[in-house]
Amino acid sequence: MIKLHDVNSKLLEAHYAVRGKIVNRAHELEAQGKKIIYCNIGNPQALKQKPITFVRQVLSLVEYPALMAQPAAAGLFPADAVKRARLILEKNPSGTGAYTQSAGLPFIRQAVADFINKRDGIPVDPNRLILTDGASKGVQSVFTMLTNKEGDGYMIPIPQYPLYSATIALYGARQINYFLDEGSNWQLNEEELTRSIEAARKDGINPVAIAVINPGNPTGAVLSKENIEMIIRFARKHRLSVLADEVYQENVYGKGLKFHSFAKVMHELGEKEVTLFSFHSVSKGFLGECGHRGGYMEVRNMPDDVYAEMIKLQSIGLCSNVGGQLVTYLMVAPPAKGEESHELYIKERDAILNDLKEKAEILGRGLNEIEGMSTDIPHGAMYAFVKFELPHKKGADLSKLTEEARLKYEAARDTEYCLRLLEETGICVVPGSGFGQLPGTLHFRTTFLPPKEDIKALVEKMKTFHAAYTAELKGK
């Protein structure tokens, strides 16, 4: 029988906080009949967000084409959904049960190229696009490709999405932390990037790439164009590739803010030396189709022989799932103006995004009214990274702790806080230590995906809990 010590040590070192022990405890409590407000993961449809009608209509017809031969289909499906399903089957006559080309169906890659061209007004090569099982698989394939020797490292934001730290651990690479500037809406700071990369090199690490999440997870921040220009110049100076995680590009709520893609900014700068990998996904935005595991990766500034190796890597897994490829197609090529489904599509899209914007404001304003708690009202994505203050237990002496011991101490504090919050209120959030945080600070990440009434209840329960928990620590 395999024992724990037989397991790959790299797997044992990997951690994925958004599905850790607190979430497991939430499932136990729910099974016992306790109402849980799940705010731990960006999983919209699990939190009562309805699917986009057009997407599900087309998928139904493509998965079971016999529906189109039934007289009743005319009443159930709009003409443009039937037309789109027929087009898909014409382009992919093997249907959804057959493998596709390793990089994905060519007509979908062309649709993605057209989408990026329309979004950014820049040339796009469909032969530098790979359809993936969600953005995560694209990110992991880049790590596989770039991790060449012991000591290779990746610059990742702190706080970060745990996909990055977990993948670095799994692949035996080195993690290079750079801290986002909480006091400046979580933008990147060039001085901090320089400090980070110089410290890594002194430690014998060879930095090969920098990962950037925009809009931010877990911060909800939207990067300015000037900030992105700085990052690209920094990458060129230090010969780094860029991994641009842009899965929340439709989720921008802040007044006057706009999503700027790395591809567009790089094109405007005339940058030809920095290799760019950019990622998008059907799981986020307003689709929330997490279970279909669809997405794409665009690659820029890569020689043909190197790109051939990336295609070889993709071919080892044969191809991404066909259902996810189709949802990706419907994301980048929605019903056009004048088509029967267009009006409903726009209505559903805007309702979801407006609801998210309103819930972000309810959450942000409400939490900022709690003494000892603060957060930026999220400008984008689906999350808030909330800073909170706790008194130390009587008699605690931190002056003699090493940096490593202090981090463990702080992780234990925010984990205990979040576990007690779950036990007493049913609110399931993720400790900030699971994402990384500036030493000496405490945070938790929460989504604002649950229904509006649940968000309001969360704020009220959080206020009561935080006051009681703080008083307990003070011994009152």
Task: Walk me through the structure.
The chain is an alpha/beta fold. The chain folds into three domains: 173 residues, Aspartate Aminotransferase, domain 1 (Alpha-Beta Complex), CATH 3.90.1150; 39 residues, Helix Hairpins, CATH 1.10.287; 227 residues, Aspartate Aminotransferase, domain 2, CATH 3.40.640.10. 44% of the residues lie in helices and 13% in strands. The protein is built from 16 helices and 13 strands. Strands 2-8-7-6-5-3-4 form a seven-stranded mixed β-sheet, with helices on both faces. Strands 9-10-13-12 form a four-stranded antiparallel β-sheet. Strands 1-11 form a two-stranded parallel ribbon. Strand 9 and strand 10 form a beta hairpin. It is globular, with a radius of gyration of 23 Å. The chain starts with 8 loop residues before the first helix and ends with a helix. The relative contact order is 0.15.
Q: For the residues shown, what is the average pLDDT?
A: 87
Going by helix content, strand content and strand pairing, the class is: alpha/beta
H/E element order: HHEHHHHEHEHEHEHEHEEHHHEEHEEEH
Uncertain stretches: none
* Number of strand segments: 13
CATH architecture identity of the largest domain = 3-Layer(aba) Sandwich
Main sheet record: 7 strands, mixed
How many structural domains does the protein architecture include?
3
The CATH C-level name of the largest domain is Alpha Beta
Strand order of the largest sheet: 2-8-7-6-5-3-4
Radius of gyration: 23 Å
CATH topology of the largest domain: Aspartate Aminotransferase, domain 2
Beta-strand level of the residues, as a percent range? 5-15%
**Shape, please?**
globular
